[in-house]
Specification:
38% of the residues lie in helices and 30% in strands. It contains five helices and six strands. It has a six-stranded mixed sheet with strand order 1-2-3-4-5-6, sandwiched between helices. The longest helix is centred in the last third of the chain and has 15 residues. The termini are far apart.
């Protein structure tokens, strides 16, 4: 892993490398295929299935200035992943990060991996001049809302919308 950050004695986080692309595909593919909250809006997002995921992972490796996949590793295995894309915030006058597809391997949920992963991500982004992390959360996903609140995220009382091109 590159740009590695140890968060706890058992969780290490880093940007996805080509060597870890298969791990990212496994975690994110599982999320995109099975998460009921993502699936509820997948059609509006224009979900393209595993082919689209593969293209996206290739694009993250080819164009790191656009964003990256952040991985959490424990015991030599990737156990968490999320997607980060960059934007320019006119309200902050600098870079913002858009956080998507946050997922933890089911066997590792409830063990602090998600919190450790986002803590390390915030530290990593702050050190690179990013001033805010934006994310979306399905209104019916109470567990995710509680998780994000524990991490310091606040509701913006907005609804995410999309236009497919």
């Amino acid at each position: 892993m590159t740009d590695e950050t140890t968060v706890t004695p058992r969780v290490t986080c880093a940007v996805m490398s080509a060597a870890l692309q298969a791990s990212a595909r496994r975690l994110l593919g599982g999320f995109l295929a099975a998460d009921q909250h993502y699936r509820a809006s997948a059609e509006a997002y224009g979900d393209g299935g595993t082919d689209a995921l593969d293209r996206a992972l290739d694009l993250f490796l080819a164009r790191p200035e656009l964003g990256f996949v952040w991985l959490a590793e424990a015991g030599g295995t990737a156990v968490g992943a999320c997607v980060v894309s960059f934007a320019i915030s006119t309200s902050r006058g600098g870079l913002a990060a858009k956080l998507d597809d946050v997922t933890i391997d089911p066997q590792w949920r409830g063990k602090g991996v998600g919190g450790a992963m986002l803590t390390a991500l915030a530290r990593y982004l702050r050190a690179r001049g990013v001033g805010r992390i934006d994310s979306g959360c399905h209104r019916g996903n109470d567990g995710a809302w509680r998780f994000y609140a524990r991490q310091g995220f606040r509701s913006l009382d907005e609804e995410r919308i999309a236009l497919l091109l």
